[in-house]
Design a protein that fits this description.
This protein is α/β, with parallel strands linked by helices. 46% of the residues lie in helices and 8% in strands. Helix 7 packs parallel to helix 8.
C-alpha cells in the first residue's frame, strides 16, 4: 500500500502561498510540477511536489522569470543572477507609457496568473511604482497603471469565496491599487473583505461586521485617528507605508503586522 501522503491543490496553496490558479498554470504551461490525479480528476500533490514549489519560489525570488525556471530546478550549483527588473515590469511600463489601459489590464491579469501575489507586489508593482514616482509629468501614466490594477483585482476578487470571516481594510485616503492588491490577497486566502476608504472616523469601524482591521494609507494619520484605532475592540494590523509612518499601530495587536494575515513569505522551506 502506498504510504506517501498526498495533498489537495487547496492544501498546497495554503502551505506554499501560491494560489490554485498559479499552480495550475505552472503545470499546464510550463510542466514545472506534475501532480497525480484521482479517478475523478482531482490533483494530488506529494511532499516532493511541495518541495519543488519551494525551489520555484527560490528562483523567482532570485529574479528568474517563470518561463526560465525549469532548467534550473534540481541544480546544485550557485548561480549569481542580476535580473533586477522583471521582463513583465518592462512590458507593462511600455504599455503604460502608451496609455493602453486595455493591454495593461491584460498583462496584469496574466502576471497575477503566473506569479504569486507577493512576487507581483514585491518585484513587478514595486518597480513600476518606483519608476512612475510622484511626478506630475507622469500623472496620466500613474492613473493608467492604478486603474488597470484595481480593475483586475476587483474582477479576480469577485470570483473568490470568503468563508474565513470578514476583514476590513481601512484608509483615510481613497483606495489605491496597493489596497486592492491587499484585498485580493485576503480573498485568495478565503476572507471576505470590506474596503472602507476616505474614512473620517475610525471608531465607526466598530459598527461593521469586520472581525479584524488592516489600516493602510500613504499619509500620516491625525492623533484623533490613532486614538480611535487604539480603542477598537478587535485585532488591528497595518500594512505598507502606514506601518513606517505609524509604527505604534503594531502595538495594538501585540506587535503583529499584516504580513502573516495577508500572505506567506516566498521562502524555500
Amino acid at each position: 500500500m502506498d504510504s506517501k501522503r498526498y495533498f489537495s491543490i487547496g492544501e498546497v496553496a495554503d502551505k506554499t502561498g501560491v494560489n490554485t490558479v498559479t499552480l495550475r498554470a505552472w503545470q499546464r504551461r510550463y510542466g514545472l510540477i506534475k501532480p497525480m490525479r484521482t479517478d475523478k480528476g482531482h490533483r494530488l500533490y506529494t511532499e516532493e511536489d511541495i518541495e519543488s514549489i519551494g525551489h520555484i519560489l527560490y528562483w523567482l525570488e532570485k529574479g528568474v522569470s517563470i518561463g526560465k525556471v525549469r532548467p534550473l530546478l534540481g541544480s546544485q550549483q550557485e548561480v549569481e543572477l542580476n535580473f533586477d527588473v522583471p521582463q513583465e515590469a518592462e512590458d507593462l511600463l511600455l504599455r503604460i507609457r502608451k496609455g493602453d489601459q486595455h493591454r495593461v489590464e491584460a498583462l496584469v491579469k496574466e502576471a497575477l496568473k503566473l506569479y504569486p501575489l507577493s512576487y507581483f507586489e514585491g518585484k513587478i508593482a514595486a518597480h513600476i511604482d518606483a519608476v512612475l514616482g510622484d511626478s506630475a509629468l507622469v500623472s496620466v501614466e500613474r492613473a493608467v497603471w492604478r486603474n488597470a490594477v484595481i480593475a483586475v483585482c476587483a474582477a479576480l476578487a469577485i470570483s473568490l469565496s470568503g468563508k474565513k470571516g470578514v476583514v476590513a481594510i481601512a484608509s483615510a485616503q481613497e483606495a489605491d491599487h496597493h489596497i486592492w492588491l491587499a484585498a485580493l490577497g485576503l480573498r485568495q486566502q478565503g476572507y471576505s473583505v470590506v474596503i472602507v476608504d476616505q474614512i473620517d472616523h475610525f471608531k465607526s469601524l466598530s459598527a461593521t461586521s469586520a472581525e479584524q482591521i488592516i489600516v493602510m494609507g500613504r499619509k500620516k494619520l491625525s492623533n484623533q485617528a490613532i486614538q480611535e484605532i487604539a480603542k477598537l475592540d478587535m485585532p488591528v494590523y497595518s500594512k505598507g507605508l502606514i506601518s513606517q509612518l505609524h509604527p505604534e499601530l503594531t502595538l495594538f495587536n501585540s506587535g503583529a503586522d499584516a504580513s502573516s494575515l495577508l500572505e506567506k513569505r516566498m521562502t524555500n522551506e
